[in-house]
DNA sequence: TTGACATATGATAAAATTATCATACATCAT
DNA sequence: ATGATGTATGATAATTTTATCATATGTCAA
């Protein structure tokens, strides 16, 4: 319940790969190879990042034959993203003016 | 409004220094030198990290003489932290069992 | 049981973040 | 104006995070 764990949970959502996975799973559950294909990412990369999301309870894993199916933990991650979205909506312009975002 | 900005906002909260600052400001606004003292951190480190929080709209800055006073943007960061707290409460045990947290 | 498919994992290289140092800038009191 | 105080900023070193590669593990079908 410490700041350490706080940071850990937040870090899980502060990475492109993991955010892409989360966004993809928003629509429906998928197995690892599907995630790889749809996001055009390497398998080990996806697995490593899924593990992080799993550890933090942001996704859950089931099984379908030899496939491991991952789905969002909708109870927690969706409301969380909603709040962040709202904040971003309000402050995006501000952030852009500060020219902090590159790319 | 892209994933890039999303990541940027979340990253602002995924760092020990910035989280400590945010937690400190929860009680009341403070100037840079006060933050340094209370958290026992170097001044430039605090300033750099405050800038990040400022860019993202998580804190606001005023002035009092030659002191620059920072305060929390309570509208957005407090509800956000509340949700994260709730999630952590639920999943902390799980996370510990996975032995992901070191220290 | 063997081979093929699906995923996980450990080690390390590559990339990104962070802290630190030196110094610049800004404000106030004299 | 000058010095003292308070804060910001740029460059780079130190640290952390991430991706990649090689390989291990697990599951199923034959």
Could you characterize the architecture of this molecule?
2 copies of one chain form a homodimer. Chain A has 103 residues and is α+β, with helices and mostly antiparallel strands. The first copy, chain A, has a domain at 3-73: Winged helix-like DNA-binding domain superfamily/Winged helix DNA-binding domain (Arc Repressor Mutant, subunit A). Chain A is 65% helix and 14% strand. Chain A has 5 helices and 3 strands. In chain A, strands 1-3-2 form a 3-stranded antiparallel sheet. In chain A, a hairpin with a 2-residue loop joins β2 and β3 (67-72). The model of chain A has no long low-confidence stretch (mean pLDDT 87). The A-B interface holds A 1, 3-11, 13-16, 19-20, 23, 55-57, 76-77, 79-80, 83-92, 94-95, 98, 100-101, 103 and B 1, 3-11, 13-16, 19-20, 23, 55-57, 76-77, 79-80, 83-92, 94-95, 98, 100-101, 103. Chain B binds a DNA duplex (30 and 30 nucleotides) through residues 11, 15, 17, 31-33, 41-51, 63, 65-68.
Characteristics:
about 100 residues, Arc Repressor Mutant, subunit A, DNA-binding, homodimer, 5 helices
